[in-house]
């Protein structure tokens, strides 16, 4: 069975500092990994995905994520956080194209000015 | 990116009534769409997979007679909550996979529908 773990309920960083939101996964086959962001009472916005190729994936709004197969991790990173990055972040996985995503529980990112 | 819309964005209804939520892919076709449910400050839970031209596939524990899904066309799926009760109050989100290039599809999500059953 597929699963995603986001070990932190909340991450707090100061504006301008680097941020990391952690994600580990478990799938039986090759993973398709995704990060989404959700603002209050809104749907999910796609940030980035890893399907194959380079382990470092760059996405929207300056975010990037690194796929680490040996550690089964796909941590989300940004070199310099903005207050506007404050939101709920979800990591998701699937093992086949076109199938539903399995989501982690989400991590609330709070960036203070 | 691709756009998925949902209507209505918010609905309040009385217990026992039925509510229909529409999910549309605006600039691409989707033979499959997914319906999720999200409780406050919790993750998204997959309810069912909507398939154009065939029956929906429901996840374990989801009542198919209560949550009716119809995939009427390649751009429209509807979720009808029948005989709604207060415990059905939740945030319902749909998504549709959009294939772009050779690196697999990306699921795009609708803005969600907040259902409140009084």
Structural overview:
The complex is a heterodimer of chains A (113) and B (118). Chain A is mainly β and 113 residues long. Chain A is 0% helix and 51% strand. In chain A, the strands form 3 sheets. In chain A, strands 2, 5, 6, 10, 11 and 12 form a 6-stranded mixed beta sheet that branches. In chain A, strand 5 and strand 6 form a beta hairpin. Chain A is globular and about 40 Å long. By secondary structure, chain B is mainly β. Chain B contains no helices and 11 strands. In chain B, the strands form 2 sheets. In chain B, strands 2, 4, 5, 6, 9, 10 and 11 form a 7-stranded mixed beta sheet that branches. The N and C termini of chain B lie far apart (37 Å). The model of chain B has no long low-confidence stretch (mean pLDDT 92). Classes of the chains: A mainly beta (113), B mainly beta (118).
Instruction: Give the helix proportion of chain A (percent range).
Output: under 10%
Estimate what percentage of residues of chain A fall within beta strands: over 45%
Amino- and carboxy-terminal Cα gap of chain B:
37 Å
- Please state the structural category of chain B: mainly beta
Radius of gyration of chain A: 13 Å
Helix/strand/pairing category of chain A: mainly beta
Unreliable runs of chain A: none
Largest sheet data of chain B:
7 strands, mixed
The separation of the N and C termini of chain A measures 41 Å
Average pLDDT for all residues of chain A: 93
Please tell me the overall pLDDT of chain B.
Answer: 92
Oligomer type: heterodimer
Determine the number of helices of chain B (DSSP H or I, runs of at least 4 residues): 0
User: What's the helix-strand series of chain A?
Assistant: EEEEEEEEEEEE
Find the count of extended strands of chain B (DSSP E, 2+ residues). 11
């Amino acid at each position: 069975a597929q699963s995603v773990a986001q070990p932190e309920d909340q991450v707090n960083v100061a504006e301008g500092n680097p941020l990391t939101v952690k994600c580990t996964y478990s799938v039986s086959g090759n993973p398709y990994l995704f990060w989404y962001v959700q603002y209050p009472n809104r749907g999910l916005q796609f940030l980035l995905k890893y399907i194959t190729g380079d382990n470092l994936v760059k996405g929207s709004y300056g975010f990037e994520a690194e796929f680490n197969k040996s550690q089964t991790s796909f941590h989300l990173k940004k070199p310099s956080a903005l207050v506007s990055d404050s939101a709920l972040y979800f990591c998701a996985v699937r093992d086949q194209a076109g199938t539903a995503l399995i989501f982690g529980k989400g991590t609330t990112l709070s960036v203070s000015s | 990116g691709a756009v998925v819309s949902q209507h209505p964005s918010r609905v309040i209804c009385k217990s026992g009534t039925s509510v229909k939520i529409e999910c549309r892919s605006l600039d691409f076709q989707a033979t499959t769409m997914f319906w999720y449910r999200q409780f406050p400050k919790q993750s998204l839970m997959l309810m069912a997979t909507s398939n154009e031209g065939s029956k929906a596939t429901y996840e374990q524990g989801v009542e198919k007679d209560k949550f009716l899904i119809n995939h009427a066309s390649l751009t429209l799926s509807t979720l009808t909550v029948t005989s709604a009760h207060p415990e059905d109050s939740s945030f319902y989100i749909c998504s549709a996979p959009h294939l772009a290039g050779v690196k697999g599809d990306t699921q795009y999500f609708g803005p969600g529908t907040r259902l409140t059953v009084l």
